[in-house]
Specification:
The structure is a single chain. The chain is mainly beta. Helices cover about 5% and strands about 40% of the residues. Strands 1, 2, 3, 4, 5, 6, 7, 8, 9, 10, 11, 12, 13 and 14 form a 14-stranded mixed β-sheet that branches.
Amino acid sequence: RTHNPGARPSNYFLVQQETNHTQASCHMASRRSTHGDTKTSVAISILSKETGLPVNFKHDGARFAQPQTLKITEGETYVLGIAVSGDASPQLVGIEVGYTRLKLEYSGARKHEATAAWTADCVRPTRDGHRDEVLVAVTIRTSDGASRSAIFPLQVKVYAASRHGTVSRAHASGEPLGKLHLQMEWEDAGPYSPIARADARFKFSRRSSSRASTESLPGMPIPASAGISSRPGRQANDVASAA
């Protein structure tokens, strides 16, 4: 899938109107707020399937829409570990990354933890001074039997695939990601809606050790492609953001 600078998916603004990012702070543990909202936390780890190492992220400050950027490599396959928790006893029933629905491999009968594989395929490297956006859609089912989804726009920089014997620039610098901490919420008292609000202020936790192992992760088929839309940075003449 090719992408044009500044382009967004056709349903992007509709999605943003539906989700209306909440102004509440992002907590690692779900709780019920004083306003009657129910909150579910989503924690996602991302490892390279080939090396078992976590992806790196970098701090961009206020230059772009989000203060942190994930660094991924064109065509590389990643293993995602997803866990959901909250007052409504949520179960993870689906996840999409870049318009590709991933196959979940559950780690227990409660279905609140799973792994999935995603390939950053059919995307081109991000231009210097720009950042790209990957939409991550998470669907849960709560104890009342209702299903709800939230869409999180995740800021990334895509690097070119490494040549034989060399290391991709995505792995050469930055901090190893521990987990992405996301939050979705909805009102108990209001009418039912399948769309939950997504808190746009993600929390990146740093992994204490960059070495990880994929030995305990089940084998999974690799999705065919992923969709990414390009978004230019706020500073058009930014030359210092090449890293």
